[in-house]
Amino acid sequence: MIYKLNGIGHDSNSYLIVGKKNILIDPGTPATFDLIRGEIEQITKNIDYIINTHCHYDHAGADYLYEEYFNAPVIICDKEVNDLKNDTNTTVSKLFGSKLIAPKEIIPINDIEITEELKFCGIEYIETPGHTAGGISLVCENSIITGDTLFAYGVGRWDFPTGNIVDLRNSIAKLEVIANQKNIIEILPGHGEKGNLSAFNNAKLFL
Ligand SMILES: [Zn+2]
C-alpha cells in the first residue's frame, strides 16, 4: 500500500510504502517534520528505510530528523551519496536559504543487499537522470514514484547543477516503456497531484 503525504509549501510530496518493510520516500524539509511525522504515525509507528529520489533540499532536508526518530538509514543513488553527505551545490539548499544536515547512515541504492531487500518488498529502482544526475524512480505495485523527473502535468527542471535535458528526455522515454510493460496506472510525482499515463504525453509538450 502506498500513501501519498502531500508536500506543504515548497516541500516535496512524501510517500509511505507499507508492506514487508515500511519505507518513507522523500521526507521533505525540517519545517514540516512534526506534521508529516504525525501523518505517518497515524499509519505506522515503524519506518525501516528512508529513500530519496534525489538529493534536493526540498526532498532530503529532513532525512536526518526521520533517521534519528525512526532509527532508519537513508538510501540514495550512489551518484548522490557525496552530495547528501557534504551538502554540495547539487542539493540546492542555498536556494531555500538553508543548509542540509546530513543523515548519519547513507547507503547507495545499488548496494547488493539493499537492492535485494527492495526486490523482496516489491520495489524496483530505475535510474532516471536529467533533473539531477543521480535521480531515481521507484516502481511499486501499479505505480511509479517519479521524484522530479515527471509530474502529472510537466517535467522537472534541468537547469540545476548536474541537470541535463537530453538525459531527462531519455529517462522519461525509459519510464514510458516500463510503464507500458508493467501495467502502471499511477504516476506519483515529487510535487503536485498524482497523474496517470497521460503524464507521458503531457511531458512531451515540455521536452
Ligand atoms: Zn528536485
Give your account of this protein's structure.
By secondary structure, the protein is an alpha/beta fold. It has a single domain (2-204), classed as Metallo-beta-lactamase, Chain A, CATH 3.60.15.10. Helix content is 30%, strand content 22%. The chain is built from seven helices and twelve strands. The protein has helices at residues 33-43, 57-60, 63-70, 81-86, 112-120, 165-181, 198-204, and strands spanning 2-5, 14-18, 22-25, 49-51, 74-76, 106-108, 123-127, 136-140, 143-147, 150-151, 154-155, 186-189. It has a six-stranded mixed β-sheet with strand order 1-2-3-4-5-6. The chain has a four-stranded mixed β-sheet with strand order 7-8-9-12. The chain has a two-stranded antiparallel ribbon with strand order 10-11. The termini are far apart. The model has no long low-confidence stretch (mean pLDDT 97). Bound molecules: zinc ion (ZN).
CATH architecture, by name, is 4-Layer Sandwich
Q: Report the end-to-end length measured between terminal Cα atoms.
A: 32 Å
Strand fraction band? 15-25%
| Bound small-molecule species | zinc ion
Mean pLDDT: 97
Q: How are helices and strands ordered from N to C?
A: EEEHEHHEHEHEEEEEHEH
What's the topology here?
Layout (H helix, E strand, L loop, with lengths): L1 E4 L8 E5 L3 E4 L7 H11 L5 E3 L5 H4 L2 H8 L3 E3 L4 H6 L19 E3 L3 H9 L2 E5 L8 E5 L2 E5 L2 E2 L2 E2 L9 H17 L4 E4 L8 H7 L3
Parallel strand pairs: 3-4, 4-5, 5-6, 9-12
Antiparallel strand pairs: 1-2, 2-3, 7-8, 8-9, 10-11
The structure holds zinc ion (ZN).
